[in-house]
Write a structure and sequence with these properties.
4 strands, 16% strand, 177 residues, 2 domains
C-alpha cells in the first residue's frame, strides 16, 4: 500500500509537471504572439506617423499655393485696373469739347505717313497709301496704282480728323459761312 500511495503521489506530481509544461508552452506562445502583435502595432504607428507628416507637408504646400494664387489674382486685378485707367487716359472724353485746331492741315506733321487702304466717300479705294505731301486742300499720296491727291472733303470723317481738317473752318476760309 505504501507502494501504491507512492505511485499515486508520483502520478500526481508527474501529471502536475506535465500540466505545468503545457501551460508554460501556451504562455510562451502567447508571449510570442503578443510580441508579434506589438511589432505590428509599432510598424502601423510608424506608418501612421509618416502619413501624418506627409499630410502636414501637403497642407502646408496647399496653403503656399493658395497664397500664390491669391497674390497672382491681386496682381491681375491691379494690371486690369491699370490697363483700364490707361485706356481712359488715352481716349478723349466724349463729353469734353474737341480741341480747336490752331494749325492748318498743311501744317500738320503729326499724321502718319502710312495710311493703308483709303476709301473715299465717292467709293474709290487707294490701297497701300503713303503720304507724300500735305497741302491745304488735300493730301498727295503714293498708292499701288500711282500718285494722286486725296481731297479732304472726300475723305471719311476719321481720316479728316487725322489731318486736323475741319470742314466748317475750311468753308469759313473760303467765304462760304
Amino acid at each position: 500500500m505504501k507502494f501504491f500511495l507512492l505511485l499515486i503521489i508520483l502520478g500526481l506530481c508527474g501529471g502536475g509537471y506535465c500540466g505545468y509544461t503545457i501551460l508554460q508552452h501556451r504562455s510562451d506562445a502567447d508571449h510570442k504572439q503578443l510580441a508579434d502583435q506589438s511589432a505590428k502595432i509599432d510598424a502601423l504607428q510608424s506608418d501612421n506617423k509618416k502619413l501624418e507628416d506627409e499630410k502636414t507637408d501637403l497642407t502646408k504646400s496647399m496653403a503656399d499655393v493658395q497664397a500664390k494664387i491669391a497674390d497672382l489674382t491681386r496682381q491681375l486685378a491691379q494690371a486690369q485696373s491699370a490697363l483700364a485707367q490707361a485706356k481712359t487716359q488715352s481716349l478723349p472724353s466724349p463729353a469734353a469739347p474737341a480741341p480747336v485746331a490752331t494749325t492748318t492741315p498743311a501744317q500738320t506733321a503729326s499724321a502718319s505717313k502710312n495710311l493703308g487702304t483709303v476709301t473715299l466717300l465717292d467709293g474709290k479705294s487707294y490701297p497701300n497709301s503713303q503720304v507724300l505731301k500735305i497741302e491745304a486742300d488735300g493730301v498727295v499720296v503714293n498708292y499701288t496704282g500711282g500718285i494722286t491727291k486725296l481731297y479732304y472733303n472726300l475723305m471719311p470723317p476719321d481720316l479728316q480728323k487725322r489731318f486736323n481738317y475741319d470742314p466748317h473752318e475750311a468753308a469759313a476760309r473760303a467765304g462760304g459761312i
